[in-house]
Amino acid sequence: MMELIIEFAYTGSVNVTESNALRLFMAADYLCIEDLVQICCKSFEKLLCPHNCISIWQFTQNYHIPELQLKAFHYVLSHFEHVVFSEEFLQLSAQDVSDIISRDNLNVRQEAAVFEAIIRWITHEPQEREGYADLLLPKVRLSMMPTEYIQSHVLSNKLVTDNLRCQAMVSEVIECKDRILGRPRLPPAILLAIGGWNSSGLCIEAFDVRANRWMNITNLSERPRAYHGAAYLGGYVYCVGGIDQVLTETNSVCRFNLSTRTWQEVAPMHYRRCYVSVTVLNGCIYAMGGHDGRTHLSSAEFYQPETNQWLEIAPMHEQRSDASCTALNGKIYICGGWNGNEYLQTAECYNPETNQWTLISPMSSRRRGLGVIAYDNHVYAVGGRNRKDCLQTAEVYNPHTNTWCSVSSMMTPRCNFGIEVVEDRIFVVGGFCGYNIISNVEYYDSETNEWSQACDMDVFRSDLSCCVLSGLPNMADYTIPREN
């Protein structure tokens, strides 16, 4: 360690590895070498994984490094379903387990994972830990579990049946389940629905997937937009192009500060673009196609937040407005749209390394006003409309085989809607169903190949755009208040 420290004193660099990081940190801290302490802390952050995050978290409790302590604990909460299978989890104290599972921001898809975690922890040393069952079970949100699971897994578990207080607690939850509201955990990500027709101002609603509820977070100071694109990048939500309240195509771009809830204009695009297709790739926002008020565009450009500049890229093979796009594995895929003469069946792919567009296999249907989204190394094309009808159908593209195949159709036909992935499910939001603007929301589960209903938005709207927020320090500001 002294050799490494002396080398650092002369060169300003040091080789921090998984095997030496802890000892090097302790030596640097003892000798008050603050720069080296910070380097070690950065290394700990990069080394965090489900098998060491608990030991790093506990280690930080003995030193004054609050930032690393917070990040390590947040990692434990965020990756809980993997952390519980580590050896470190089994060595936690009862109080530490209680502190972890009581948090609103514990990331679990199903509350059953929390119950199974405490059973695993207790049965690791049953004689010493059985007495902690009535300390830990109240921290499980039993009222969020299906009654069938409680009856078949919780009430029948020996740790519950042998503990009268636990039995009474679980029985009370079952008896009162229809009359009490559970307190859901905070979601790891929030779905935003932004703008569109039939809203006052630039209406924004946030969907809390854990509570299955929408919350209105509209800031009426920003002008209304429709046929625009939305993107989340660097802690900001960007609204790109579209059409404003006087039905004028715009090249303006504004961004929403999620901390202050204020809007700010940034550099405009080179072209006016409504019906624009927008996605994020490699830290940049790409805007493709659209309509400038006179013609349907094949041009494309991207925005660099660091320089506040838009730069043009190679044009697409087709003029496309009212298309949809997504980013997958370092490339952009854009599908369908309208070229002014026909509704398009074609799709193409952009490689930023070569600045080239390549036509890929066409979809099985012509689609305008569709939704395109990447999920599980595939590209999904959903809904839209052809010359006659709004579509319910959906299809999926495999980039490795360059082929499309059909998946289950949506429950509701729709075009010009929002689409995003939240917690491994594809959500479609609002739109036009062929005869009316809708607030309807549904989601697709690729494992079951089924669509299911989610909570409707409070606002009926079409021609909106969606994006997903994650990793916000103030995530609770965009969720349904848990205290209520």
Automatic annotation (TrEMBL):
Q: Which Pfam families match?
A: BACK, BTB, Kelch_1, Kelch_KLHDC2_KLHL20_DRC7
Which CDD domains does the UniProt record give? BACK_KLHL10 (cd18450)
Q: Output the InterPro entries linked to this UniProt entry.
A: BACK, BTB/POZ_dom, Kelch-typ_b-propeller, Kelch_1, SKP1/BTB/POZ_sf
* Domain of life, source organism: Eukaryota
Q: Where is the BACK domain?
A: 53-155
Task: Please provide the record's keywords in A-Z order.
Answer: Kelch repeat, Repeat
Can you name this protein? Kelch-like protein 10
Annotated organism of origin: Parambassis ranga (Indian glassy fish)
